[in-house]
Amino acid sequence: MTAQHAFADALLHWFDQHGRSHLPWQHNRTPYRVWVSEIMLQQTQVTTVIPFYERFMAAFPTVHDLAIAPEDTVLHLWTGLGYYARARNLHRSAKTICADHDGRFPENLDDLVSLPGIGRSTAGAILCLAMGGRAPILDGNVKRVLARYYAVEGWPGQRTVSDQLWALAEHHTPHQRVADYTQAVMDLGATCCKRTQPTCPTCPLQANCSALATQNQTAFPGRKPQKPKPSRQRWFAVAIRSSGEVLLQKRAANGIWGGLWAPPELSDERSAREWLHHNVGVSAAECYLGTPFHHVFTHFKLEATPVYGRCAENQTHSPSVKFDDNDLRWFGLDPVPSVGLPAPIVRLLKTLGNDA
Ligand code: SF4
Q1: How far apart are CA 236 and CA 227, in angstroms?
Q2: For site-directed labelling of 205, which of 23, 253, 271, 333 has its Cα 20 to 30 A away?
Q3: Residues 6+ apart with CB under 8 A from 87
Q4: pTM for the predicted model, two decimal places
Q5: Residues 38, 153, 170, 313: which is the catalytic one?
Q6: Helix, strand, or coil here: 297?
Q7: H or E segment at 107?
Q8: What is the 145 CA–ligand 1 centroid distance (Å)?
Q9: Which domains does the chain possess?
Q10: For a substitution probing ligand 1, which of 15, 141, 142, 148 has the most ligand atoms within 8 Å of its CB?
């Protein structure tokens, strides 16, 4: 048996006894269900994803249901998962699949990766797991297994390292039982070859694993070079009616928190006070500061301070200021509005009773 076959055979043998079979997306495997699970799992742990996945599937059982849903509903069901571009891309791709492909997923890699948010690994997973095709995948779990097994140096975000890992992934993808192999290598990374404290004594690949041989498992894959994150200071103008309703603004589709709802964000305290004065008639002196909070994004740290302004029930926008009513709206907070809300804003709204 060649080393190529031995790798896949060892994994498949292990998978038959120890692979996961209880995950919700492993049942009734359709391209749509696999796709949604792969997108949710891109930056998020399985245990976090499961309840989000089940709610999402209950709301949108088919790609058609997702395509015709309002964006606010899609983003609402994503609230708490983070990386909202994933949800916007899912929605856009669902529309394209329905409009251009008659509601059916394309059955080749090139057409799949042309859809928004579907990269080569996600396309490979859809093809292998739901369509009986053969294509390598290289998600975070697979990168870790291959980088350790071959002691591949360097951060996988670098092109040369990524190319090396893709070549290894392609090399080991078998021609039979491709779906099981694909699931097996993902499962091994998730349950055995874990990021910290891999359980090598139970690993089917231990006999030839380079990282284990040198007891250097957690050095692979290489870490992303760390740069200090810059801080960005922002002020949120939080207008609150006597009834408890809060004024939220739908953010532009692109950029941080695109398409989500949040109190208007200003670059300094004075602008936040002026915004409240001009738009809901609260004088700058009546505005007051709330408890600052922070949130860490991939590229920067947000340091935010709420500026509160309380207004009467019938107080609304200044007639001199034109708002698109679709983008600026009063919301009651009980229950939490059924629109997309960034997690820090959900926390802010929950503390209004203490702060405001
Ligand atoms: S032997 Fe250990 S480090 Fe190597 S692939 Fe298996 S779990 Fe990962």
Answers
A1: 27
A2: 23
A3: 74, 75, 77, 78, 81, 340
A4: 0.88
A5: 38
A6: coil
A7: none
A8: 7
A9: 3-219 (1.10.340.30), 231-355 (3.90.79.10)
A10: 148
Any catalytic annotation for residue 38?
yes
Structure confidence at residue 326 (pLDDT):
64
CA 121 to centroid of ligand 1, rounded, Å: 21
pLDDT over 80 (residue 325):
no
* Residues 275-298: tens digit of each pLDDT: 999 988 898 889 999 999 999 988
Q: Are 169 and 4 in contact (CB under 8 A)?
A: no
Q: How far is the CA of 8 from the centre of ligand 1 (A)?
A: 14
Per-residue pLDDT tens digits for 98-143: 999 999 999 999 999 999 999 999 999 999 999 999 999 999 999 9
- Who lines ligand 1 at CB under 6 A? 145, 148-149, 192-193, 198, 200, 203, 205-206, 209, 211-212, 217
pLDDT value of residue 220:
97
In angstroms, the CA 39 to CA 51 distance is 14
Residue 233 has pLDDT above 90, yes or no: yes
Average pLDDT score, the chain: 92
- Pocket test of ligand 1: the residue of 143, 172, 192, 202 to mutate, having most ligand atoms within 8 Å of its CB, is 192
The structure tokens 């740290």 sit at 301
Minimum CA distance residue for ligand 1 atom 7:
193
Token pair listed for 76: 């609402």
DSSP-based three-state secondary structure for 242: coil
Closest C-alpha among 116, 161, 115 to residue 138: 161
Q: Residue 320: pLDDT band by 50, 70, 90 thresholds?
A: very low
Distance CA 219, CA 209 (A): 13
Q: 1-60, pLDDT tens digit by residue?
A: 676 689 999 999 999 999 998 999 999 999 999 999 999 999 899 999 999 999 999 999
Ligand 1 atom closest to the Cα of residue 144 is 8
Confidence of residue 322 (pLDDT cuts 50, 70, 90): very low
Output the CA 227–ligand 1 centroid distance in Å: 29
